[in-house]
Design goal:
The protein contains 14 helices and 15 strands. 37% of the residues lie in helices and 15% in strands. Helix 2 runs antiparallel to helix 3 and helix 9 (308-331) crosses helix 11 (351-372).
């Protein structure tokens, strides 16, 4: 079942620019899809249809008047509920902010609108992004588009689901320890964690921390590149931001897929430290058999990630204290268990713990930088486990073993966060239950354009291989369930 809302963002933007379709017509298609499948999935949790319709009409008028059009002109885009949207409820998934309507957009939302996009609504997220499963006390659980009773992961789960199910061609995500990449893998879409500073980070209280970044979510690599181009830029309020042209690239959209024969590829099942379920290891090895049939030069080699778990845990704890200690002290009764647990754990750390974690983080970054100098791309599984029950609050067991913390199971993602390099997740078929499986591609620091070209080449190759091509949810089944 293919409709206008199922087309790629790149194709839709071309059609709008050529006056083949109207932004109003496209918005109607997206709203109709939301109406029919969102009751089953609960991905889009706040709509302002009148404002979206007005924005679409203005976009249509600009096209007809021959005005200069932005990269995302007329495209409906969903904004994760951690990003503030002027005039549209932004709850951060928290009861404390259930009635919060911001007076102005944050940086990501402003960049999205500036590129001509139509903000169609907000997408669900766990409270303050604290969770690798998407649910909160304000809006409830978001289901996986391939099985609504399964988890879509988190914290950008609503965005991943909305894009996968055709509710919108693009949506925003954010990533600290895999919050963008894990949902992309669970939902069979593309997600990019950029190099810190590529997309100006203006929300964090810790300006000098490179951990949290915003990035695009889309159904294919070209669409993700389009949205990244709209979000990227220089803003001196972010100390990691780089002036335009610093990388010698006017655009981050690659000219075409990379030449696979020219690539030197590192392969790692677990980065040498992360817990990975045997099911995922088997899926990854089966995909390596496919990669061996492509003209790639591959080498199995793990980076040095010794101490990554402890370093990430402490650094993340400092971030939680900076963002949420006052809420915890004044409104603990209104906070969910994940936020409370993180704040209380962070309060047990000493200055010595923080000093050690900061030093180890620096060592991991420099070691990973040297490691990546030998390769064009590192390929790993995107996740440690496949989608689990969406009612499960803690996270999955790995090979029957409960993990030390609810976030520990995403080590395969947060190890790359500590390494400081960009990471792209692309779909790579399904498992034996028909649930999506994804690969994580890690590129050179500040090398998003090259990484996207590599992702496009693999995506193109996978499209011709049945067990590796991007899966698509059963839209009629989701409609019937609603």
């Amino acid at each position: 079942m293919s409709e206008l809302c199922d087309l790629t963002a790149v194709e839709l933007r071309r059609m709008i620019g050529c006056k083949e379709i109207s932004p109003v017509e496209l918005l109607d298609a997206c709203l109709a899809r939301i109406e029919t499948v969102n009751p089953t999935l609960n991905a889009v949790i706040c709509l302002d249809e009148p404002a979206a319709r007005e924005a679409a009409k203005q976009a249509e008028q600009a096209v007809m008047a021959g005005e200069e059009l932005g990269l995302l002109h007329g495209l409906p885009v969903g904004i994760k509920d951690l990003n503030e949207t002027a005039g549209l409820t932004t709850t951060f998934g928290s009861r404390l902010f259930a009635d919060h309507v911001p007076a102005q957009d944050d940086g990501l939302t402003a960049s999205t609108r500036k590129a001509g996009a139509v903000v169609i609504g907000k997408t669900n997220t766990p409270e303050h992004g604290a969770g690798a499963n998407t649910f909160n006390a304000v809006y409830g659980h978001t289901g996986n588009p391939f099985d609504p009773e399964k988890s879509c992961a988190g914290s950008s789960g609503g965005s991943a689901v909305a894009v996968a199910a055709g509710m919108m061609p693009l949506a925003s995500g954010s990533d600290y320890g895999g919050s963008l990449r894990t949902p992309a893998s669970f939902c069979g879409v593309v997600g990019l964690r950029p190099t810190p500073g590529r997309v100006p980070a203006l929300r964090s209280q810790l300006a000098y921390s490179p951990m949290s970044v915003d990035g695009p979510m889309a159904r294919n690599v070209a669409d993700a590149a389009l949205y990244l181009d709209a979000l990227a830029g220089y803003d001196e309020r972010d100390p990691f931001s780089r002036p335009a042209g610093a990388d010698g690239e006017a655009s981050l959209q690659p000219a075409g897929p990379a030449d696979l024969a020219s690539l030197k590829v590192a392969l790692s099942e677990d980065l040498g430290f992360a817990p990975v379920d045997d099911q995922v290891r088997a899926l990854f090895r089966s995909r390596l058999e496919t990669l061996s049939g492509l003209p790639l030069r591959c080498e199995e080699r793990d980076p040095d990630m010794q101490g990554a778990d402890r370093a990430f845990e402490v650094i993340r704890g400092v971030g939680f204290l900076s963002a949420h200690l006052e809420k915890y002290q004044k409104h603990r009764d209104l906070l969910g268990p994940n936020v409370i647990a993180n704040v209380e754990l962070a309060q047990t750390y000493t200055a010595e713990d923080v000093a050690w974690a900061s030093v180890r983080h620096s060592e991991i970054y420099r070691s990973f930088l040297a490691y990546m100098q030998d390769y064009d791309v590192l390929i790993t599984p995107a996740v440690a486990a496949q989608p689990f029950d969406k009612q499960q609050t803690y996270g999955p067991d790995i090979n029957g073993e409960r993990q030390p913390t609810y976030i520990h199971w995403v080590g395969i993602a947060y190890g790359v966060t500590l390494g400081g390099h960009p990471a792209l997740v692309i779909p790579c078929g399904v498992d034996e239950d028909g649930l999506p499986f994804g690969l994580q591609l890690v590129g050179q620091r500040h090398g998003e354009r090259r990484l996207l070209a590599i992702g496009a080449a693999l995506e193109q190759a996978f499209a011709g291989i049945e067990r590796c091509r991007r899966p698509q949810p059963n839209i009629p089944s989701l409609m019937a369930a609603a």
